[in-house]
Specification:
This is Glycosyltransferase family 1 protein. The chain is α/β, with parallel strands linked by helices. Helix content is about 45%, strand content about 15%.
Amino acid sequence: MKIGIVCPYSWDVPGGVQFHIRDLAEYFIRFGHEVSVLAPADDDTPLPPYVVSAGRAVPVPYNGSVARLNFGFLSAARVRRWLHDGRFDVIHIHEPTSPSLGLLTCWAAQGPIVATFHTSNPRSRAMIAAYSILQAALEKISARIAVSEYARRTLVEHLGGDAVVIPNGVDVDFFAKAEPNPEWQGDTIGFIGRIDEPRKGLPVLMGALPKILAARPQTRLLVAGRGDEEQAVESLPAELRSRVEFLGMVSDEDKARFLRSIDLYVAPNTGGESFGIILVEAMSAGAPVLASDLDAFAQVLDQGAAGELFTNEDADSLAEAAVRLLEDPARREELRERGSVHVRRFDWSTVGADILSVYETVTAGAAAVAADERAAGGGVSGLRARLGLARD
């Protein structure tokens, strides 16, 4: 099958959606499918052979964060050229409502279109206001996927229609087989995320750290991610700042080793999350997880059975739960075991097969419609001509 995948966010500033698309493309390539990914990227950025640059992205505030998106006449021209050259059996657009390549592709593409909705934002006034603009593009979508029940709810409430829920995927064995790093072991709490993005919740974790260290002064907080490290610790008393170690950006391999090494992974995110891929990665690596009680996180953690939850934005609640877990090795081992079983439902062997089933359904449907049109007389091209639909 020839598969075209559209990434809305800049490939050279990686995030959860980009990782999902990368792993999805590589999963299909391993099984012999032809895959091309169209993504914003600087023209001089080294890209995998299956990624085509749609040009440089610009930062835009989006869903409580800053997304690097790509839109405009040059982008539209690159979208049309990519579609023409690819002649895909199916187009898979991620975040089709964002002002980026997905919307441009929806307008330009012909044939079966699958769309995945990642965003969970129940108060999205922008999405409601833009509905009339989005409607024509959304009507071209053959099948809709939501990565969680909360992303599906956002879609239903703001745009109508429905979607099948297929979660983000993870290569579970990649994380499970990673070798721990001794330097990151021993009374360590881990955090991975953009340091200077408030909704990732690092300030909440910093607010909890004095109470954690008061109970367990030997504990270290290891932080992986980009951002202003001095600003991140400025709320801490000076004598505690040495207990925080910043690792900067880490490779996929080091992320897996990081998650295999720590005693507790903390996800203090405050909102805007529709899934929580880092929770799945942590469980895959065998790290006990403590997360804020966002609805999406609770779902990923099986309502607290596969990981513990604390009250969102409550540093005291976080500190109390963290101390309790750090002092209870048996409970941490129980969470490791439960997480390792629960996480298998997110492995690419399951998620990739479910997405491929969606592709096969929409391509079979498109073939059936084409056959009906030919049987009606005049063929597809004749029907298009009678309806006044010119080909690109």
